[in-house]
């Protein structure tokens, strides 16, 4: 498989520093819950959390929507729920990528029923052209073309998550 670099580690680091500063300013005086969407969120959440200068708690949810394929199966399945109660809290959901928007639409709707004080979403990557479900993403790292990408947490059948950069996967 051919890896065609799309975003360098430096570009990613720089953008995360900007987003961290913006989030710090937007939530001044408040405490946050960062809710990572496993598994792809882990490098992004880890870097973003350290660039936000606010008190925070960190927890995770896990859903399955792809089932090891490169195209969306159209079904979302809940695999792990968060442990920290979010009622009355400011929640920032942390996603690696928003593609069709199906996963995020499902998660937003579900989490809203738990009555957080506020709910916002950050996604490192946004495939604008692939969107079939109209769902708000408050903090976007990069808009990217509608190609299958790996690295920096993103996988192809669980591989490439450890790449320090984002690449388009081709053959
Ligand atoms: P959506 O529900 O179609 O928005 O897809 C969301 C999930 O599909 C993401 O959280 C990823 O786990 C996965 N996904 C979407 N596009 C890609 C990609 O280009 N590479 C790797 N995983 C992807
Ligand atoms: Mg994901």
Architecture overview:
This protein is of the alpha/beta class. The protein has one domain: Rossmann fold, CATH 3.40.50. Helices cover 22% and strands 33% of the residues. It contains 3 helices and 9 strands; from the N terminus they run βαβαβββαββββ. Strand 2, helix 2 and strand 3 form a beta-alpha-beta unit. Helix 1 packs across helix 2. The longest helix is centred in the first third of the chain and has 18 residues. It starts with a strand and ends with a strand. The site of inosinic acid has 18 residues, from strand 5, helix 3 and strand 8.
What's the gist of this structure?
This protein has 171 residues and is of the alpha/beta class. It is built from 3 helices and 9 strands; from the N terminus they run E-H-E-H-E-E-E-H-E-E-E-E. It has helices at residues 9-26, 42-50, 102-112; strands at 2-7, 32-38, 56-64, 77-80, 90-98, 118-126, 139-143, 149-150, 166-170.
SSE blueprint:
Blueprint: E1 2-7, H1 9-26, E2 32-38, H2 42-50, E3 56-64, E4 77-80, E5 90-98, H3 102-112, E6 118-126, E7 139-143, E8 149-150, E9 166-170
Parallel strand pairs: 2-3, 2-5, 5-6, 6-7
Antiparallel strand pairs: 1-9, 3-4, 8-9
Helix pairs in contact: 1-2
Inosinic acid binds at residues 40, 65-66, 72, 95-104, 148-150, 154.
């Amino acid at each position: 498989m051919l890896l065609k670099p799309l975003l360098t580690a430096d570009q990613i680091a720089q953008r995360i520093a900007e987003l961290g500063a913006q989030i710090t300013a937007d939530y001044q005086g408040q405490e946050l819950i960062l809710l990572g969407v496993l598994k792809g969120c882990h490098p992004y959440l880890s870097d973003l959390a350290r660039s936000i200068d606010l008190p925070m708690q960190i927890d995770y949810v896990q859903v399955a929507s792809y089932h090891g394929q490169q195209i969306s199966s159209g079904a979302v399945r809940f695999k792990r729920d968060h442990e920290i109660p979010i009622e009355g809290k400011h929640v920032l959901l942390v996603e690696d990528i928003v593609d069709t928007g199906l996963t995020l639409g499902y998660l937003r709707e579900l989490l809203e029923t738990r009555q957080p004080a506020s709910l916002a979403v950050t996604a490192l990557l946004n495939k604008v052209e692939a969107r079939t479900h109209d769902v708000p993403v408050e903090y976007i790292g990069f808009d990217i073309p509608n190609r299958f990408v790996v690295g920096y947490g993103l996988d192809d059948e669980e591989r490439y998550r450890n790449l320090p950069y984002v690449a388009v996967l081709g053959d």
